[in-house]
Write a structure and sequence with these properties.
The complex is a heterodimer. By secondary structure, chain A is an alpha+beta fold. Chain A has 2 domains: about 25-50 and about 65-170, 2-Layer Sandwich (60s Ribosomal Protein L30, Chain: A); about 185-345, PurM-like C-terminal domain (Phosphoribosyl-aminoimidazole Synthetase, Chain A, domain 2), CATH 3.90.650. Chain A is about 30% helix and about 20% strand. Chain A has helices at about 30-45, 45-50, 90-100, 120-140, 195-200, 220-230, 245-255, 270-280, 300-310; strands at about 70-75, 80-85, 85, 105-115, 145-150, 160-170, 185-190, 235-240, 260-265, 295, 320-325, 330-335, 340-345. In chain A, the strands form 3 sheets. In chain A, strands 8-10-7-11-9-12-13 form a 7-stranded mixed β-sheet. Chain A is globular. Chain B has one domain: 3-Layer(aba) Sandwich (Rossmann fold). Chain B has helices at about 10-25, 35-45, 65-70, 70-80, 105-110, 120-130, 145-160, 175-180, 185-190, 200-205, 215-220, 230-245, 265-275, 305-310, 325-330, 360-380; strands at about 30-35, 55-65, 85-90, 115, 135-140, 165-170, 195-200, 225, 250-255, 275-285, 285-295. In chain B, helix 1 (about 10-25) runs parallel beside helix 12 (about 230-245), helix 2 (about 35-45) packs across helix 16 (about 360-380) and helix 7 (about 145-160) packs across helix 13. Chain B starts with 9 loop residues before the first helix and ends in a 9-residue tail after the last helix. The model of chain B is unreliable at about 380-385 (pLDDT under 50). Classes of the chains: A alpha+beta, B alpha/beta. The interface between A and B is medium-sized, with 25 and 36 residues. Chain B: Keywords: Iron, Metal-binding. Chain B: This is Hydrogenase maturation factor. Chain B: It comes from Rhodoplanes tepidamans (Rhodoplanes cryptolactis).
């Protein structure tokens, strides 16, 4: 039989402008292939993804010998999906890169799984994919493999994104939450609370206006500069996301079996963020960040490290905010700007669901 | 932050602290109760205790609406929320308050009850208007400050003809509670040292300062109505120290930027139009307080969830090991309670004082528990790492 005589099915492009995700888009058939080809492939394009296999195959990076691989996984359920300063796509890239980078690693590759609710507008999905692709390109860390699932209407809320990330820690560098020692300095890369307040200001039931945008950013560039400046004197790094700076410092105190004393006046908080927190009865120390890091470093290199951080655009407002002390109770204590002392505790209960 | 930073000025705080230290006599102690949880929170959050001389001690009072809500009323709210067709709108801090048998609104919500966290009465009204098929109940709670907004919501609902909006009324009254503290058996036996009260400013923006007159006249205790910024609190403490030193028992107003002796007459009239005092209402820790709470008047019965759903409160017992009651009366301190910091923490609160951030126990746990250990160290007690 001559193929030329058969009618060829016309390739109809996705109606991205008005179309919606249907259950068939997750069924593994032609519709899914089209969704991937029309939305995800162009947005995330890179040679590994283009292999089109169920897995991506990457060559071992230079410097792999002697170094250590790190891997992380993360889920994103932020609400709303689009917020001042970002969206779930860019947030997923930044958040995953940051989890990798906090080990001092160079982030190499990401994966992304989309769990999409039936009826979700294709235009929004395309916007999210494009933003994810742009964030990955800016960071130089490609999304090399992915997955798409569609669930019935009401079984998810728009889109959830699950990611994984792999990175390489250079030989000789070992950062870990249990390495803080009395006398170490605690450095913070910039102002706190921006992400949480940006999300809150865009929630329907709160309706207050602010110029605050999320600080969502990939921190691996800043981390590289810090590793170069302080090397093995760096004890640990953490990004204070959910639970804010307070949770991060308590985690470190517990893991390392030490106390931490911070100075309220040294902690940068933007006036707009402070005002919004005042209005909502929140404590900036508990509010989430997506583009900040805390570093604990040997006291003698604190100034060098701080200078290196301030020389990087994402660490311009970096400050030394406290000191690690000997304390069997592992308290995080703060000297208030008012002059008294208090504990900085973990947050009890839920301050704000679905912040990232 | 304009209009806020001025009242949190550390340099000024040091000057007031120096004045308090200079004027407080070394041959006596001063015990002042800050009635309101807002003050408790400010004292703890800014570390005001560190700025006071040893002889001046603050006692945390019962002015936290969540803390004084009896378990029986919490049970009522949980049962109400579980009724089919009912949507219960509540402030967030009530979600985790334990009812009897370990229940809570949070658990009821997880089990399927329609409970929604709101930030104001108006949010509840919006829900009632948008979902006419639901019986929307607003969990109304609070002192004189929050009663006028509830009244406005009801008037608005009446004007808009919203038939599916009711309130579960738990509004309580400050002066009645202060009287109950002075009338408590411990106070009468002289077991509570109390030299004066810091009164809540926001309550007085509504009721004025005049309603505290009995406190000075009948019980010989001075009251200073104070704002909630840390400098306001420091200033009020200095004013109380001066009154005690000079043998005065007066009702003074520190919060002159918003409080007048007569208060907000419009708000008072609105509240009087819609509400009437309950002859008696149970307060957690204080027991039955005569005329200590409000209910809706007969004319507004159709907005009263208690009437619409036939709620009859069954008194429930507090956990017998929990000292919330004695703490709320100023008889005990949080750390005196056997459950404090062991079985009872903000994550797993046994008593209401640990639930709200304005509760005495939560404030002490969250901000001040290092002082216990510091005191123990001073006393020479050898301590190990906390569990």
């Amino acid at each position: 039989m001559n193929d030329q005589t058969l009618p060829r099915p016309r390739h109809r492009r996705l109606d991205v402008r008005t179309g919606r995700v249907e259950l068939t888009h997750g069924a593994g058939g032609r519709a899914m292939a089209q969704l991937i080809a029309d939305i995800f492939a162009p947005a995330l394009a890179n040679p590994y993804l283009a292999q089109g296999n169920d897995q991506a195959a990457m060559p071992l990076p230079a410097g792999a010998a002697g170094g250590r691989l790190v891997m992380t996984t993360d889920g994103y359920v932020v609400s709303p999906l689009f917020f001042p300063g970002g969206d779930i796509g860019s947030l997923a890239v930044h958040g995953t890169i940051n989890d990798i980078a906090m080990s001092g690693a160079v982030p190499l590759w990401l994966s992304a799984s989309f769990i999409i609710e039936e009826g979700f507008p294709l235009a929004d999905l395309q916007r999210i994919a494009a933003s994810m692709g742009a964030a990955a390109r800016d960071a130089g860390v490609p999304v090399v493999t992915g997955d798409t699932k569609v669930v019935e209407r009401g079984k998810a809320d728009g889109v959830f994104v699950a990611t994984a990330g792999v990175g390489l820690v250079p030989a000789g560098l070992e950062l870990s939450g249990d390495r803080a020692r009395p006398g170490d300095a605690v450095l913070l890369s910039g102002s706190i609370g921006d992400h949480g307040v940006a999300i809150m200001s865009s929630r329907e039931n709160l309706e207050f206006e602010t110029a605050i945008v999320s600080d969502s950013a990939a921190l691996h560039g800043l981390v590289a500069a810090m590793v170069a400046a302080a090397g093995p004197s760096l004890r640990l790094m953490r990004d204070p996301t959910r639970g804010g700076l307070a949770a991060t410092l308590n985690e470190v105190a517990h893991q390392s079996g030490v106390g931490i004393v911070i100075e309220e006046e040294a902690i940068p908080v933007k006036p707009e963020v402070a005002a919004a927190c005042e209005l909502l009865g929140l404590e900036p120390l508990n509010v989430a960040n997506e583009g900040k890091l805390v570093a604990v470093v040997a006291a003698e290199v604190a100034d060098t490290l701080l200078a290196a951080m301030r020389a990087h655009p994402l660490g311009r407002d970096a400050a030394c905010v406290g000191t690690v002390v000997d304390d069997p109770h592992r308290f995080v204590q703060m000297t208030t700007a008012f002059g008294g002392g208090r504990i900085v505790d973990w947050l009890a209960g839920e301050q704000l669901p679905r912040i990232c | 932050m304009k209009y806020v930073d001025e009242y949190r000025d550390g340099a000024l705080a040091k000057r007031i602290a120096a004045a308090i230290a200079a004027e407080a006599r070394s041959d006596r102690r001063y015990h002042f109760m800050e009635f309101c949880g807002g003050h408790t929170h400010a004292i703890s959050r800014y570390g005001i205790e560190d700025l006071l001389p040893r002889g001046v001690r603050m006692i945390h009072g019962p002015g936290c609406p969540v803390c004084v809500l009896p378990v029986g009323r919490m049970d009522d709210a949980i049962r109400l929320a579980q009724r089919p067709g009912v949507t219960l709108c509540t402030y967030g801090d009530l979600m985790r308050v334990p009812g009897s048998d370990g229940s809570s609104l949070l658990k009821a919500k997880a089990a399927g009850a329609d409970i929604r966290m709101v930030y104001s009465t108006l949010d509840a009204l919006k829900i009632a208007a948008a979902e006419p098929g639901r019986e929307v109940v607003f969990f109304a709670i609070g002192f004189e400050t929050t009663t006028p907004p509830t009244a406005v919501a009801i008037e608005t609902a009446a004007r808009r003809g919203l038939k599916n909006f009711t309130i579960f009324c738990n509004h309580v009254l400050t002066p009645a509670a202060i009287r109950a503290i002075m009338e408590s058996p411990e106070a009468k036996r002289g077991e509570v040292s109390l030299d004066g009260f810091v009164g809540p400013a926001h309550v007085s923006t509504v009721i004025g300062t005049a309603p505290y007159g009995f406190c000075a006249a009948q019980y010989g205790k001075p009251v200073v109505v104070a704002g909630f910024e840390p400098l306001d609190v420091m200033h009020a403490i200095l004013m109380l120290v001066r009154q005690v030193n000079e043998g005065r028992t007066e009702i003074e107003n520190q919060y002159i930027r918003a409080v007048t002796p007569e208060g907000n007459r419009t708000a008072q009239a609105l509240v009087a139009k819609l509400f009437e005092p309950r002859e008696s209402f149970e307060w957690r820790g204080l027991g039955e307080v005569p005329f200590g709470a409000l209910r809706l008047r007969e004319d507004y019965a159709s907005f009263d969830a208690e009437r619409r759903f036939g709620i009859v409160t069954v008194p429930a017992r507090d956990n017998p090991a929990c000292d919330c009651g004695a703490i709320l009366r100023g008889v005990k301190r949080p750390a005196d309670c056997r459950l404090f910091g062991t079985a009872c923490t903000p994550e797993t609160p046994m008593g209401s004082c640990m639930v709200s951030s304005e509760g005495a126990c939560a404030a002490h746990w969250t901000y001040g528990r290092f002082r216990q250990h510091a005191r123990a160290r001073e006393a020479g007690v050898v301590e190990g790492a906390s569990a």
